[in-house]
Write a structure and sequence with these properties.
29% of the residues lie in helices and 28% in strands. By secondary structure, it is of the alpha+beta class. The strands form 3 sheets. Strands 10, 11, 12, 13, 14, 15, 16, 17 and 18 form a 9-stranded antiparallel β-sheet that branches. It has a 5-stranded parallel β-sheet with strand order 3-2-1-4-5, sandwiched between helices. The chain has a 4-stranded antiparallel β-sheet with strand order 6-9-7-8, with helices on both faces.
């Protein structure tokens, strides 16, 4: 195989683990991130420490690689579109534009992909918020349309919410109000699709959160019916196909008591809920992203082991020493220099069987 060069937009832990996966194939990685301490810079062959809005740097970066993927969605859309003038961007800037805006995303899911979501309303004014709040007539969640993750940029509204105060606190007029879903549990599924339209799906997993941040992923999801598995895969294929995806896509789902699944959100990149694949599957999610981006045949997603993935948040990173010599634990340290509360520092994959 001719050696290729992969570009990665974003130098966080996802970019780092993608670069490590690419290295197995002799693929060099160039990483673009404005933070000189980005952990992916520790494992790449060329670093671009530039702002995402620096178009001259973007051009130089894109002109020196065969294809580019991104490790997070909050990059300027104009920069993503500019990249496509010089090389392949996987997934495309169109898919990025859908995933960057919760309202655009929800409209796409409901009206294009024809999958079910919670009820939602656009809120651009205080009057929109009032009308939407009363239309839902129950508990709801007000979210910023952009830049929210790990519980940031959202407020839960109970039946007695002070809407005036909420409007002041949220600090934006680009909002979406969603019906609160009393779900049974959160599930997720990750799929990869190549340029020929071939799709490979990973097992459906269960996610558990602590303080709005993913704490554990259990793979496969325990006590899950074949009907739910098949429904999740059908939903994933619908979305990936309608997006004309080339690359990786994670889909978060709410499982309801009646066996229905609602799509919460999508992420066109490697995902925290897929870290279990690094030690549980023939081909992990990061290698699969590399394959799809560079036009290499997709790998098998067969599960080798049942895994419980435990995130290491903040000071949890110091637990690594405890598990370094545990034959049933696989330790992954992201190499971040500063330990902060709420910061994802690493994870441990516990092999269950």
């Amino acid at each position: 195989m001719k050696n290729k060069t992969l570009g990665i937009i974003g130098g966080g832990q996802l970019g780092r683990m993608t670069a490590l996966a690419a290295a197995k194939f002799g693929i060099e990685c160039h990483v673009f991130d404005p933070d000189s301490n980005a952990p992916a810079f520790q494992v790449c062959s060329k670093s671009f420490i530039k702002k995402y809005e620096d178009m001259a740097a973007i051009k130089e970066f894109a002109s020196g690689v065969d294809a580019i993927l991104y490790e997070f969605e909050n990059i300027p859309l104009k920069s993503a579109q500019y990249i496509e003038k010089f090389c392949l961007l996987r997934p495309s800037s169109f898919i990025l534009s859908v995933s960057q805006d919760r309202l655009v995303e929800k409209n796409f899911l409901l009206n294009k992909a024809k999958v079910k979501t919670a009820k939602f309303y656009e809120c651009s004014t205080y009057e929109d918020l009032e009308n939407s709040y009363h239309s839902i007539n129950g508990i709801s969640v007000l979210k910023t349309r952009r830049f929210g993750y790990d519980g940031k940029g959202q407020i839960k509204l109970n039946n007695d919410a002070d809407l005036g105060e909420v409007w002041k606190v949220i600090g934006s007029n680009e909002l979406i109000l969603e019906e609160f879903i009393p779900f049974k549990r959160e599930l997720s599924i990750i799929v990869a699709r190549d340029y020929n339209g071939k799709i490979e799906s990973y097992d459906v997993v269960e996610n558990k959160h602590k303080n709005h941040i993913l704490d554990q992923t259990i793979a496969p999801a325990p006590n899950i019916s074949k009907d739910i598995i098949n429904l999740a895969k059908t939903i994933a294929v619908k979305i990936a196909t309608e997006l004309n995806l080339i690359g990786l896509l994670a889909i978060e789902l709410f499982e309801l008591d009646d066996g229905e699944l609602l799509v919460n959100e999508i992420a066109p990149r490697p995902h925290n809920s897929g870290h279990w694949t690094m030690d549980g599957c023939v081909t992990d999610q990061f290698e699969q992203a590399v394959r799809a981006t560079l036009g290499i045949e997709l790998g098998s997603t067969d599960r080798l082991f049942n895994i419980t993935m435990q995130n290491l948040i903040g000071d949890d990173i110091f637990l690594i020493k405890k598990y370094m010599n545990d034959p049933k634990a696989r330790v992954h340290n992201y190499g971040k220099k500063e330990v902060r509360a709420g910061r994802k520092m690493g994870h441990i994959n516990h092999i269950i069987s």
